[in-house]
Amino acid sequence: MPFEVTILGNSSALPTSDRYPTGQVLNVLGRFFLIDCGEGTQVQLRRNKIGFGKINHIFISHLHGDHYYGLIGLISTFNLLSRKNDLHIYSSSELKTLIQPQIDFIKGEIQFKILFHPLDFKKSRQIYIDNKVEVISFPLKHSVPTCGFLFREIKKQPNIKKELIRYYNIPIAEIKNIKAGGNFTTENGDIITHETLTIQPPLPRSYAFCSDTVFYPNVVEIIKGVDLLYHESTFTEEMKVFANSTFHSTARDAAEIAKFADVKKLIIGHFSTRYKKLNLFLNEAKQVFENTEIANEGETYKV
Amino acid sequence: MPFEVTILGNSSALPTSDRYPTGQVLNVLGRFFLIDCGEGTQVQLRRNKIGFGKINHIFISHLHGDHYYGLIGLISTFNLLSRKNDLHIYSSSELKTLIQPQIDFIKGEIQFKILFHPLDFKKSRQIYIDNKVEVISFPLKHSVPTCGFLFREIKKQPNIKKELIRYYNIPIAEIKNIKAGGNFTTENGDIITHETLTIQPPLPRSYAFCSDTVFYPNVVEIIKGVDLLYHESTFTEEMKVFANSTFHSTARDAAEIAKFADVKKLIIGHFSTRYKKLNLFLNEAKQVFENTEIANEGETYKV
Q1: Tens of pLDDT along B165-177?
Q2: What CATH architecture does domain B3-156+202-302 belong to?
Q3: Cβ contacts (< 8 Å) between A13 and chain B: which residues?
Q4: B-chain residues within 8 Å CB-CB of A143?
């Protein structure tokens, strides 16, 4: 049952000859969620052999070009590939205004619906749910309205231990109650606890994506204990003043958030082009939070 | 005195993992003209070490995404790099409507002017001239209004042979007339011809860019005798029916145009992703026009 994220781009705003701007694909139990869509994302999808037809939901954290300029090209390609499925885009409501003229220009041919879902930049919201996964957006603190996203499995009900059902002769009518957390009382008044009667399902796995943001501890409560945290890390500490003034984080900032939130693992990205060696970021982060990795392009990280 | 074109992308509309959509940089005597700007053009400019600050004129042949979706990213990068120089964009008048919302969205910060120059899709026009170069747009025949572009050096005046000036004692007042094509008559009535008195300058060099088009012999008159012709070649002959229905050319079509126009050399590009081996195009074209090359990405072709 896959829950993993593939990094399509780990660079920040300026283009480099060998790194792409932000884009990630999250595979949660066969659902493919695209997170941000910088220029060239569609090429990176193809390089990583992720079928265009699998992507039905796109989450755009904010409207800086390095996070959305690849969207119109991807939509155009969907159209060239005769897409029919609805496409859901979760973003600032302004995105529609920005790209609708270009969509309309190819509209005569477009066979699929594009549904824009506006994000709330004031407080966290559940923006997607199905029977297996939910997605929650939450505000970050950047120079323009920006959201992070939390992807979390829905908690499964526990499984009943069948041999105990038989042993205590538990009626089928009781099973639902026990699964939901109830105990069972036998005919002679003994209480058999929920915990005795059930096998707990695996804990729901979760991934948090913290896009462009200055150090912002308000997110800690929301992303508490996630299995994998992506956090931007545009600069290292010697650029701290510039990081603050441009509303970006340092590697140390990212690691502090990971530590405060007690996450299991941290990956860092969105590196400024001024850094040629990414291990500067890694070393700085590891001093605060050991279980850190660089978000390498083309690499897939299990949640 | 350079006159050369660097190919940034040779692919057609669908993205591939290893080829870029249309983009070319033409260097004419130190002027850098960008021709078309598909997604990823700015990355290709960086890879080919072409300074962003050198580009002041961008020519967009038509408004299919693979020819212009990289423009907004390039404009945004110009802005991030604190550009001050005016940027001239030659395109369908609709381009402004399509990307202005995105430009306005970053406008608070933009320090340079963007000047849109509408193309005429009905007849050929001189759209740029300075003391060394002129650019002429001319209609092609595609599914949307499309122009090709002819870049041509301005013909220099011939140089006077100084030793003959002294020998015939020609007054300075006569020099201008001789340079412009006139003869000189000596005191005793002898006529010394223009040709005798001058050294002819090198012939003006010229490059023609024929973007997306079905086979369209109307262009022959305009591009007659150019030193280098780029002509699209999306398909090979076995896809001729499909090529016609999508208003594209085959390699043979491109070569026929080169032959009719008596150009010195042909390069072909805009290859459909269905072809893995580009030598299929080359072999087909060479049967009609021997001096043909594939427009390889990253390669520079002298005009």
Answers
A1: 999 999 989 999 9
A2: 4-Layer Sandwich (3.60)
A3: 76-77, 80
A4: none
